[in-house]
Amino acid sequence: MNIFFDVDFTLVGLDLTLRPGTHDTMQKLLADGHKIYIWSGVGIRWPEVREHNLTPYVTDCYVKPLDHFEEKLSQMNLPAPPDLVIDDYPEVPTALGGFWVRPYFFYSSNDNELEVLYGLITEVAQTGRSDNRRYKPRPAKGLFQ
Ligand SMILES: [Mg+2]
């Protein structure tokens, strides 16, 4: 699957730390055959990807639409449209299909959100769905269906 991660408060905190488990989760997703993309509403985030040594995992970076998600996504002509979006802002997975994650603001060694997410992504990859309430399937009338 093409998995699109948001940056701010999904992977990077307000304190600019990288969320615990990011490297481990990305390594496992790649090993499982997924592709990882980074997108953000505030721009192309290669500088942050490099700063946190995520370059080996990331196929490409894009600008994320902030509204009219399906319409704007279709105008982006992405070589690989998202199969799953991961975002701390619920509107994005609700519109495009994916998982909402709890916002990450400050470093906490107890934050296991990405470990949980890996299990849920694996469930969707294997079964095509998840009953977890954080999961939203892509709407049936989406442009990419
Ligand atoms: Mg965010």
Task: Explain how this protein is built.
The protein is an alpha/beta fold. The chain is built from five helices and six strands; from the N terminus they run βαβαβαβαβαβ. Strands 3-2-1-4-5-6 form a six-stranded mixed sheet. α2 (46-51) links the parallel β2 (35-40) and β3 (58-63). α1 (22-31) packs parallel to α5. The protein is globular and about 40 Å long. The model has no long low-confidence stretch (mean pLDDT 95). Bound molecules: magnesium ion (MG). Residues 6, 8-10, 87-89 line the site of magnesium ion.
Q: Number of DSSP strands? A: 6
What is Rg? 14 Å
The CATH architecture: 3-Layer(aba) Sandwich
Mean pLDDT: 95
Category from helices, strands and their pairing: alpha/beta
Small molecules in complex: magnesium ion
What does the largest sheet look like? 6 strands, mixed
User: What is the C-level CATH assignment?
Assistant: Alpha Beta
How many helices? The count is: 5
Write down the CATH topology: Rossmann fold
Distance between the termini: 14 Å
Strand order within the widest beta sheet:
3-2-1-4-5-6
* Proportion of beta-strand residues: 15-25%
